[in-house]
Amino acid sequence: MHFRDWVTATEKNDASSGHVMEYMWHIIFVMDAVFCPDEHLCYCAVYGRCK
């Protein structure tokens, strides 16, 4: 609830608040961060979308 309230109350625009949440999700959900140096390698390793 705290994070939802922050998103709805912040004066940041949607893109900026979205970026904050993208960078914080692993902390919010107590998970390890995922480092993706290359977009295609990341999609393959994380989502199994290997083309």
Automatic annotation (TrEMBL):
<dbReference type="Pfam" id="PF11913">
    <property type="entry name" value="DUF3431"/>
</dbReference>
<dbReference type="InterPro" id="IPR021838">
    <property type="entry name" value="DUF3431"/>
</dbReference>
<protein>
    <submittedName>
        <fullName>Uncharacterized protein</fullName>
    </submittedName>
</protein>
